[in-house]
Design a protein that fits this description.
By secondary structure, the protein is an alpha+beta fold. Helices cover 16% and strands 14% of the residues. It is built from one helix and two strands. The protein starts with 6 loop residues before the first strand and ends with a helix.
Length: 93
């Protein structure tokens, strides 16, 4: 985002707000100053929950309500979906 001249922001309302923060956004230093990612445990968090941007570069905000097509690799059996859901719920407990 630092090198972009302009930025278009997409706000996709097809996903519930509770998913916000489920991932970390970590931007390492540029080479040759890149360092190992400082995580040693699976429970650790790093980075931010959003991509930092210069708001003066934002030229447009687009609202959508379209779920992403994750392709054939995202097709799962009902049992694998249940297993995945159980794993995620157990993880957050």
């Amino acid at each position: 985002m630092d090198t972009a001249d302009t930025i278009i922001v997409e706000v996709n309302t097809a996903y519930p707000e509770c998913l916000q923060g489920i991932h970390d956004i970590y931007i390492p230093q540029a080479p040759p100053k890149t360092q190992p990612i400082p995580l040693v445990e699976t429970s650790q968090r790093i980075g931010k929950t959003a991509i930092p941007v210069d708001i003066d570069k934002i030229i447009c905000i687009v609202e959508t309500h379209i779920k992403e097509d994750l392709g054939p690799q995202a097709k799962a059996t009902d049992q694998s979906k249940k297993d995945c859901r159980a794993f995620i719920l157990k993880f957050f407990k």
